[in-house]
Fold this sequence. Notes:
The protein is of the alpha/beta class and 302 residues long. The chain has one domain: Ureohydrolase domain (Arginase, Chain A). It is built from nine helices and eight strands. It has helices at 43-51, 90-106, 121-126, 159-164, 185-194, 201-207, 210-213, 249-262, 282-300; strands spanning 22-27, 77-82, 110-115, 134-139, 169-177, 197-200, 221-227, 264-271. It has an eight-stranded parallel sheet, with helices on both faces. Helix 1 crosses helix 9 and helix 8 packs parallel to helix 9 (282-300).
Amino acid sequence: MTQSPSFLGLPGHLAEGGLPRAVILSACHGSAYPGRESLSASAPAAIRAASQGDAPLIEHWDFDLGAPLFAGGPITCVDVGDIATSAGDAAGNRARIAAKTREVLAAMAVPILIGGDDSVVIPFLDGFAEHGPIWVLQIDAHIDWRDELHGERHGYSSPMRRASEMGHVQGLVQVGMRGVGSARPQEMEAALRYGSHLVTAREIHADGVEAALRHIPAGAKVVITLDCDGLDPSLMPGVAAPTPGGLTYTQAIDLIAGIGRRATIAGFDLVELYPAADVGGLSALTAARLVVNAIGAVVRQG
């Protein structure tokens, strides 16, 4: 695993054998479609680099969180670097991502995965099989219910379809859809038949984040999966499929904080940053701040 630079300059382990509350890890590759390379393979490095400006400020006041990142206490998050993945080894990538997720959960920590494209979400969720039941809150412009594409059933168009088939996944809340995307009518029908709660970006703009949070049972264990194109491209231009009308930064962090208060954040991932399409590093900076908010929410939950 790589370790330089770490996210926010966080250590790779805590001193004196301390147990972390959260563990950051990253996966550059998942299950690519035949003949295609991931546009997001360089995203973990870009997000870690974007976080370096805040590295000396960990003890400063964070207005998103209402206190310093670790609420005045000791550092309780570590960055263990990249999982060893490669573009041509989809099955091996899935196995290693799931295994590392299980390892973090076995240590009673919350895994925070930085992708990589949306295909890394499937083995990440699979890693919770012995730690369920879980709910999944997805922030995304798309519903990701393709059964297969080009013969691949574990690609970036299928994570919520595969999640619906996992016995430890109790329910799905999908937030941020808008415009015309990848969903075919039959995929919408499959999502609704399963019972997924679909909350469009327009509903969030009209009714606030409670339009999504109300579907999460109080006290549930929730894995938040955040596709960068779920946010509006005015602040997250570095994505493969920019679509107007997405969530604001404040709505996204309010969803993260709301889950931390209403339920328990059992895991978090951020995927689908496309650094080559970024504008002035804005997307990477926004992505890094979203990860900071996830860490803060985990630190503050019981």
